[in-house]
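Notes from the pairing session

We agreed to fold both candidates in a single pass and log them together. This is the raw record for the first candidate, unedited. Please don't reformat it; downstream parsing expects exactly this layout.

Candidate A
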Amino acid sequence: MLDGILGYRFTRSDLPREALTHRSALQGKQRPGGASLGGSNERLEFIGDRVLGLLIAEWLAERFPDEQEGELGRRLASLVSQPVLAHVADTIGLGEALSVAPGEARAGVKRRATVLADALEAALGAIYLDGGLEPARDFVHRAWDAAMTAQGAPPKDAKTALQEWVQKRGLDLPAYTVSARSGPPHEPVFEVTVSVGAWRATGTAGSKRAAEQLAAEQLHRSLPH
């Protein structure tokens, strides 16, 4: 199944299976004798995260030869951010192929941005371990083409853009508060609310920092410009 989604034919059958296995799918499952069934996608996610950063950095350096580190860094941060990863994963249909616990599936975990982003990095890690950098590079260039092409000037992070908006208008700085926290300790979900005067927006992610960025992005988009 993963072969068709990624456009890459695996030679090792264990890698796509591992890449598609959410931690929740293994809870309570053990081999005879009490040994746990390994194989959630967390280790592949760890590898894929590093591979993605390298390949996007390489691509940016080739595409923007006149830009300096700061400009390239902002582009990189945007392209490897959770919202972009989740969008790419959703576009290729990765979420529907994930193996999760029945209760998590009913709760809609397959649509959660953090889960989609992690699964995409795991899939990239699987490609790298199976075939090396060249097929990993080919996948990244195909899957991130729209996001890369859409970038004009080096982007500002959402919190910076929102802060500049309020400062230009002489308003108080944005206030961020954690309005809700859910999920197990190993996979928390934070809901952060940002307010500027009477304007408010919320963002939900697997870390407070990411949730703040999502909230800031949502609010900045809704403000008059």
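Candidate B (folded immediately after A)
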Amino acid sequence: MQPGGYPLHDPGEVINTMKAIALAHGLGSTAKANNAVILRKDPATGKTKEIDVKLKKIMDRKAPDVQLYANDILFVPDSTTKRILGHAATAALSITTGLAIIKGSQ
């Protein structure tokens, strides 16, 4: 996933959560898709409200997609646990591979 701003070039262009994810090149492997939120500022009060978005359900076609509006922010949190487990698995694989190479050359 490539976080960033993706401005709409055509004022009449409609963008939804799936298109936003596509523009960001998909979700990362550690993304918490069912904990995503849209941050939307209420023009009347100026306060930002959070709208829960179950991206996993939307991607599985079990929930309708959600339209985004000007200045909306689609925030998909990262799972620290998934990231740590991923690094640990990579390290374990590297160590195992290194041992296999050392053992094979003796």
